[in-house]
Amino acid sequence: MPLVPAHPARGCLERGRRGRGRGWGARKAELWAGQVAAGQAALREAAQVPGTGGAAAAQEHCFATNAARMRYGAYRAAGYSVGSGTVESACKRLVGTRAKGAGMRWSVDGVQAVLNLRAEELSGRWAQSSALTQTPLPVA
To answer: Distance (Å, rounded) from C-alpha 69 to C-alpha 5?
Structure first.
């Protein structure tokens, strides 16, 4: 099942959770249905309320900035997975299994270097990448 590359609404809504009030469930339902414009309109209206307008205005700005990527209704209709659980699970399985074998000890830089090399190989860019790093040394 294909994945949506980013989950911008999550970040927008998470930042405003503490002061979200009763509108949280409605905003979430609108996004799930792909009605980003309705969510933006409600947040614009909420931004006019004294004392709570700052958080709502920030969320509305976030929605406006990311509206093109927040078409969750269309993504779901096309069969895409909307959420980060699948990617997080894959990272845990692939990276964790490879880097946490019996007796293995890695520094952060060391495991990142190996993961970078694996990514180049698996993406079919090994020859291109290695050609860039194998520059002849100058003759003294």
So the answer is: 9
